[in-house]
Design brief:
- The complex is a heterodimer of chains A (about 110) and B (about 325).
- The N and C termini of chain A lie far apart (about 55 Å).
- In chain A, helix 2 runs antiparallel to helix 3 and helix 2 (about 40-55) packs across helix 4.
- Chain A has helices at about 20-35, 40-55, 60-70, 75-95, 100-110.
- Chain A is mainly α and about 110 residues long.
- In chain B, helix 7 (about 195-210) links the parallel strand 5 (about 180-185) and strand 6 (about 215-220).
- In chain B, helix 2 (about 60-75) runs parallel beside helix 3.
- The radius of gyration of chain B is 19 Å and the shape is globular.
- Chain B starts with 13 loop residues before the first helix and ends in a 40-residue tail after the last helix.
- Classes of the chains: A mainly alpha (about 110), B alpha/beta (about 325).
- The interface of A and B includes residues 35, 71 and 75 of A.
- The complex binds iron/sulfur cluster (SF4).
- Chain A: It holds the Pfam family CMD.
- Chain A: GO terms for molecular function: peroxiredoxin activity.
- Chain A: This is Carboxymuconolactone decarboxylase.
- Chain A: InterPro entries: AhpD-like (IPR029032), AlkhydPrxdase/COmuclacdeCOase (IPR026445), CMD-like (IPR003779).
Amino acid sequence: METYYDPKDLGSFAEVAKDAPELAGKFFAYYNEVFAEGELTEREKALIALAVAHTVQCPYCIDAYTRACLEKGSHLGEMTEAVHVATAIRGGASLVHAVQMRKIAEKLSL
Amino acid sequence: MPMAANGQMGGRAFHEALERHGLQLTREETRVLQVNVGLACGLSCRHCHLEAGPQRDEVMDLETMEAVIDCARRFRFESIDLTGGAPELVPDLERLVRALAPLTGRLMVRTNLVALDGARGAALCELYRELGVALVASLPATNASQTEAQRGEGVWGRSIEVLKKLNALGYGMPESPLRLDLVSNPSGAFLPPPQQQAEQKFRSDLFRRHGISFHSLYTFANVPLGRFRSFLERSGNLDAYLAKLSDGFNPCSVPGLMCRYQLSVDWRGRLYDCDFHLAQGVWHGGGETHISALAELPPPGTAIPTADHCFACTVGAGFT
Ligand code: SF4
């Protein structure tokens, strides 16, 4: 079956450098620095990345950061809770706009 | 955006990786004797390279134990490491442990924890405490689901109970000389976290949730042999896992590899360079030798046979 996403494509990510090497170089240098140990550990950063990956719904990122989380010592309970954090913020962000809806409806209503 | 991954599939030959870095696998001084006392075990962990389990009845007999004891007397190893299977299931284990303890600087026994449950387990704990035996216990994760996925249903709760009992006996307590170390192998086709980070996390998780203390944690990659290899094949992970191991070859890990410092002996008394070669039948010295026929320790510089499973020892920080 043909699909747009093939898991093997993840391995070709570096090829984006082919036609704009300088920009790619800057991006990857920044990227690697972001994920290096700093105030947060590499494990914590991978958990954040996993949650964000679910928010942007990127299958490449979900694949890469599921592996990264496991290899950095996070377990499935922690990873699932991280995804719930993303879900809560994502759902909450919609729900909190109900305040606008209610305000406008109130203004329009008798 | 995901990190760039190496899409190469399929492993390379280990001897080629050594050659590429101008390295050879040769012995240093042999300081450790590892004794695999048998393949009988109460568990059937899904990563076991030896396919040990309740259906196996191969265990070391008294005659072979006496040959091991003689060898320990002749050569005085810095440390002796008893492994299995579950050593606790070997009927004459007490004879071996009592005889070896005074013959080495450090006698350690590997345990799956569950086998230290019950009356025989309690008696063995007392024996270990009396003789100052160091314990090395398997615990893959700090949560029930991943522990049980690797080691079987019900193992988590029983392991935690045994760890608490060991702490109560003085094992693993911060200032105690009764050494309790943990070993964590990943519960799947992925590599382990760096040891120090994992140790911190295990220490805080186990103490915060269960009040359990231990001395050190060792993280090791799973070796693609035995039951773990079958899992890799069945789950379609074999090629990617082998590629991951060979891509992660770290030449700096070679000086510390355990095969450079130890001899392994199986339940029948036959010699190998390590427990993985034992699982695969790769003899020490190129041919079958019984421990009773070992006239001298292999001199430094002796070549060690390699196999592609050696990549599991040289990935990342290495298997020492
Ligand atoms: S499997 Fe590991 S310990 Fe055994 S010979 Fe190979 S490198 Fe050495």
